[in-house]
Amino acid sequence: MDIARQLDPHVKRLAGEPLGALVRAGGGRDAALQWQAGPIALDARHQRLDADAMNALFALADGAGFDDARKALFAGDVVNPTEGRPALHAALRDASALKDRDYAARIEAARARTAAFARACQGADAPGGKPVTRIINIGIGGSDLGPRLVYSAMKAFRREGVDLRFVSNLDPADLEDAVEGADPETTLVCVTSKSFTTSETLMNARAAKAWLAANLGEDGANARMAAATAAPGKAEGFGIAPARIFPFEEGVGGRYSFWSAAGLCLEIALGPDVFARILEGARQIDEHFATAPAKDNLPLAKALIDVWNRAGRGLLARCVAAYSTRLELLPAYLQQLEMESLGKPVRLDGSALPAHSGGQLVWGGKGSDVQHSFFQWLHQGVDEVPVDFIAVKTLYTSDDERAKALGANLVAQSAALLDGHEGEGALAAHKTLPGGRASSVIMLERLDPEGLGALIALHEHKVFCEGLVYGLNPFDQWGVELGKLLTNDLLKGNHSRFDAASLDLARLFRL
Ligand SMILES: O=P(O)(O)OC[C@H]1O[C@H](O)[C@H](O)[C@@H](O)[C@@H]1O
């Protein structure tokens, strides 16, 4: 399917018109570019799109087999054929649609076990015999970004008296910061690694265990180590007691994993009830995604808008500006979710993807801060980059004048991107903002556990739909393997794959 060719007539038709005029034309356009699912509204009226172009996009999804594909996802079919796996993240929210009842039973049993452990950590049954006050999650990539985002976003829902810290980087400062002020007696180190082979995580886990052992001895250290992994045998081999190994399924992708035992640190820090509410919010979006007709389907619509900008209009990047301090880690989270899922060179059949297809370059930050840093580039730089404004309605409609002003900033930026401004006087050319730059608003009703779960699930399903339309596999990530191999070679002193320039660099690092 040549996506660009199918979209081209619409792209050409809409390219000539000033975006402001298109937006103000109204008519059926307003209804065709707004969607609602549970607590989330998507307003795409500031996109260079209209009802006819949307119809062409929905036809792409239909042609790619949208209905069968979503059924296959929820049924637990192998939707990740290059690794021979299903994608079970939605089943972690509700396993009832899974064909394989063994999976469903294992997922439900695993949930009960992590919840019981999280409760035990609150009292005398905690690993060290006293309530846990510090959790140190050691993990990287999907085993870090999800828990980090959720912990940050759910600040208002944290349990009192527990502090969760994250160690992902090999810079020893990461662990130093994480143990700062911690009482080893009441610390739990949670090693989160799907594969339990990731070298950063294993090195940091050894260092954390050494810190515990230096304070409490070997037995005391062992008692305070837990693991969440899809390779329980490897965690046991590392020295973690089976009673504190919490497995999850191979079919749960790393960047889709915090809903599983990989969210153990969250379940302890937020409590099992809050954690269950996050799952419930995601489940509501799952239900919407599974059942809403294509044209009303918010994750599908969002995916198609991103396909429109990337494959139709040839725009490489998308900016995510979250107008909420609590959601400031969302851009980093989406960067992994989208770029690791959709940064692929080929379709499922191995044929090459054309230029301007696959994932967008996702980047962003926290509004209104970023208005004072990179928004200059968005307004006057020579490239157009569509912006997703992530908004939290109840924040801006509170009585606090600052919160209200934060909302005003969002609306103002969206308007400035749309219409720009004609500069005047001697510096007119410098003061002119061209406008005509697309943006969307993703409005969350409120930032509570259900809302957060819904927001994340929306993006997971959006990525699934983009993978479907492009015909690629969003669930593998072969591209990250080479760097791991080369690092291991260097650490073992095997220089056979390196050229002179790389070896000069290696010598500088005493490798
Ligand atoms: O959870 P782990 O197996 O330790 O993997 C951690 C991360 O590293 C890998 O290289 C992948 O790029 C990520 O998708 C994954 O989340």
Structural overview:
By secondary structure, the protein is an alpha/beta fold. The protein folds into 3 domains: 3-15 and 34-63 and 292-422 and 430-476, Glucose-6-phosphate isomerase like protein, domain 1 (Rossmann fold, 3-Layer(aba) Sandwich); 90-277, Rossmann fold, CATH 3.40.50.10490; 479-508, no CATH class. Helix content is 48%, strand content 11%. It contains 21 helices and 11 strands. The strands form 2 sheets. Strands 1-2-11-10-8-9 form a 6-stranded mixed sheet, with helices on both faces. Strands 4-3-5-6-7 form a 5-stranded parallel sheet, sandwiched between helices. α6 packs across α11 (264-270). The longest helix has 25 residues, at 199-223. It is globular and about 70 Å long. The two termini are 48 Å apart. The model has no long low-confidence stretch (mean pLDDT 97). The chain binds 6-O-phosphono-alpha-D-glucopyranose. 6-O-phosphono-alpha-D-glucopyranose is lined by residues 140-143, 193-195, 198, 201, 254-255, 340, 477, 480.
Compounds present? 6-O-phosphono-alpha-D-glucopyranose
- The name of the CATH superfamily of the largest domain reads Glucose-6-phosphate isomerase like protein, domain 1
Number of helices: 21
Provide the structure class: alpha/beta
The CATH architecture name of the largest domain reads 3-Layer(aba) Sandwich
Termini separation: 48 Å
**Relative helix content:** 40-55%
Residue-averaged pLDDT: 97
CATH first level of the largest domain: which class? Alpha Beta
| Spans of at least 5 consecutive residues with low confidence | none
Q: What integer value in Å does the Rg equal?
A: 24 Å
> Per DSSP, what share of the residues sits in E-state strands of 2 or more residues?
5-15%
CATH topology of the largest domain: Rossmann fold
Strand order of the largest sheet: 1-2-11-10-8-9
Can you summarize the main beta sheet?
6 strands, mixed
- Envelope shape: globular
- How many individual domains? 3
The total of beta strands comes to: 11
Family: Belongs to the GPI family.
Active site: 340, 372, 484
Subcellular location: Cytoplasm
Organism: Glycocaulis alkaliphilus
